[in-house]
Records
---
Amino acid sequence: MTAHDLLELRRVSRHFGSFRALDEVDLTVRRSARHAIIGPNGAGKSTLFGLISGTLATTGGTILVDGQDVTRLSVERRVGLGVATTFQHSSLFMRETVLENVLLAVLRRAGRGFGGWRSVRGRTAAIEQARTLLERVGLPTRHDVRAAALSHGERRQLEVAVALATEPRLLLLDEPAAGMSPAETARLTELIAALPDEVTVLLIEHDLDMVFGLADTVTVMHLGRHLKTGSPDEVRSSGEVQDAYLGTTGVTS
């Protein structure tokens, strides 16, 4: 692991009985990267994310975040170290407003809850931070709308705001464009591209247009193994990727 890398996986595996969902995967993600993981169904992408986020335990190997071994740490401990995740299935509080969803994340980051925030000044600052995050993700006029009333695309934007409220160094996005219209995907791509360099992004995505338009680095998974990592052009033109991922038809954007 070099000083330029934020995340490193060393021979990371996850077995379910005799099935090897991931088999000794090595991967590094450099700081400030927009790094995408692609591959067909069954390639091991979601399992990989579960291991990095802490929702799944490894069978073997080591996971390092900024040089610290997090392999056995809980999700909460990893969040405290700057690892935030948005999953394909929404985890928002649907009965609460857009602002309340983000505010709760801000207060949790500060070690407080709605009922435990005694300082009016502190609560005002937290509300202002939540409003700033909503502007960043393109929801500046939706503060008082319940999350349940948002469109699918808006919910994904809100999930990014909630994740950003934890002040992540590493943001994991699990199929962020799933179920989105082309216009919604374009807005989300712009949002992710505009995130500050302090936030390193690692995403799983099936939408190759989004991947090749956003990522500076692409990793291809195949049958639980790391196949290739390179620039979008390197991956797109790779014969082994074409054979393993899309047969002989090629990888196109």
Note: Residues 93-166 form one domain.
---
Amino acid sequence: MIFWRAFFTSFLPLFAVAVAAAAFAFSPQSRAEITLRGTGASFPYPIYTQWFRDFSDLHENVFISYEMTGSGAGIRDFIGETIDFAASDAAMDKAEISLVKRGAVLLPMTAGEVVLVYNLPGVDTLKLSREVYADIFRGKISHWDHRKIAAANPTAQLPDLDITVVRRSDASGTSYIFTGHLSSISTDFRKKVGQGRTPNWPSPDNFRKAPGNQGVAALVKQTPGAIGYVEYGFAKLVELPVAELQNRAGNFVAPGAESGSAALENVEFPDGKLPGSGAPNLVAWEWDPEGENAYPITSFTWLLLYAEQDDKKAAALRQLVSYMLSDEAQDQAEDLGYIPLPEEVREKVREASRFIR
């Protein structure tokens, strides 16, 4: 934990150096018989690296490295067959899956919440209505003492300060989740920005960009008046305050395991199989969840695996998935800012993992 805090609160130029210097390997490679290399989403990075470390402690013959390059880069590496596995919060669409020659198996391994972190000295609690946070991220509201922000925060001493909006600079699954939600609740946002890993963000002077969840968190932390979107685990690690967001039922809700679980309780996976591998389709979204206590921006995140593998790597990956689904692993989710998978979802993932061969 001390390492993470030091890492995230460093200046932004250090990020590229830190990530390039360490792909975060979790057992001495010299002792390993099997090497598994992955790239992709920063959204699940804190929990994945914890799980990979724990798994390698139990299986010293397996060397695992995972580099947080962003969901888009992870998918490109996966299609290009330059890695053994990838991770993405935006899953993969049918066109991308069709390009995977060895067949793709997409497994939701955990779930998390996209939160709005902010830097407002003297403001410990901030509530943002659906209209307000959509308008902030399409560039319509640009000052913290705006009357619509003040209306939801009557006791807060909102500063006379410009809003600095921090968004992702890379192809991002976190952006895909966030803009998917905003596009579902705001027609204007959908028309002017839209949903995507690289959405059509506005370009006014108050918009800035940073790579990865870690980059957004760091830039917000060092910029008074800033607001940005990250996975909840990153907000916890750097101890940034998060806004309470108004949900579909009209309630202001803080993120957490309980409100995140409430958001996902009605998610249903589609019928059908993934092309190429025949694995069950475990890609599902809840862009604007119902429920009095549901946190409004909650999503699964997926591990991307090849259906056809080297036999030893396939066996190691099946063991890894089994460990990640165990009570021992899933029980760590809440402390790290994630949502444990319900047992019925875990069982579906176990069944799908049999297609890794």
Note: The chain has a mean pLDDT of 91.
---
Amino acid sequence: MIVAAFITESAMHDAAAELRQVPGCAVETYGATQPQNEEGAWSILPLVMLGGGMVGGLGGFGMQAYATTISYPLDIGGRPDLSWPSYIPATFELAVLGAVLAGIFGYFITMRLPRLYDPVDDAVAMRDVMAGGHVVVACTSDISGVREILARHDPLSIELVGS
């Protein structure tokens, strides 16, 4: 694992873009601020939350429909067994609950949490990230080629972490 610290965010993005062209090289960027326009920076999390909301809403509606039509039908004032307008509040609440739970668990899965230790945390450059530093981490077997690419972008430091 190679860790390189940069002065500016644009230099970090240029180096990361070039490293992403290297086959078999996994690239991660770290910075104190959210990246502005990183190519390919889309998240699957909204789709996971949409799916969780749909499952929660359909599950809540189905549960109420099953309970009032099949499991325990009641004749209350001539109301039909499948009186769907009365299901709307609970269906909405269960849809929101499903979306929130899917969002929480989806976030943990996509961010690989809880991750209590990562070898990149041992790098000296990672100590400056929260103070405004910009770091690129490249995991590859071609260490010399990646080191040459990083050196072209004028980093503050390049260090080899882990094995």
Note: Strands lie at 2-6, 26-31, 134-139, 157-160.
